[in-house]
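User: My collaborator sent over this chain with a note saying "see what the structure looks like." That's all I know about it. Can you take a look?
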Amino acid sequence: MPRERRSNIGRRTRHASQQQVYSRNLREERQNIIRENDRLRHRVSTRRSLASYNRLAFQYDPTANYSDDENFDVGRMTTICRYCNALKFKRETVGLCCANGKVKLDPLLTPPQPLKTLFDGSDPDSSHFLKHILEYNNCFRMTSFGANIIREGGFMPTCKIQGQIYHLHGSMVPTTPDEPHQFLQIYFISSMVDQLNVRCNIQGAQQLKRRIIEQLQAFFQ
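Assistant: Without extra context I'll predict from the sequence alone. Here is the result:
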């Protein structure tokens, strides 16, 4: 008596499923290749000539996608110098940071108070101090900036000067009783409270905090 043949339905079903998975993966792979080729063709077609980069910053086009141009992408600072542990870009010149270990700087000292807490963020007014650090510096400067500044018509993105830069310190005390103390003259006020009041009334210091100015004044004395 001949043996009964087993059904091939299960085997055919598995084979069909495998074919579907294979076909789907093949289509996805082809689509990825097509997209990558389109991206490369677009990059080549939009690549600028070297001459077109001249003064390109002054002709910035906000509608252009500069990220597609590899000449604008310097990458991330993932390269670490083995001598000084400085972070560098991938194509940055070797030895630019420390000349391959020939230049060795002493470790930075911990700043004294109140500068330490103002810089490291532990002071509640740290963010305010860092935002207005230039104004706080102006409260304690001893001289003013002096130079022959060239002023041209229209918009000037840079500051032009002629000749040398120098500092104006003036006299040690005001020349008249009605003249306010400024710059180095403030340091010769005998009363610390009067010094503090003058510094808090300097132009641009109205947005500063009196507590911080008082702490810095005590530190500089």
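A starting point for your reply to your collaborator: The helical segments are 9-46, 115-120, 126-131, 133-138, 192-200, 210-220.
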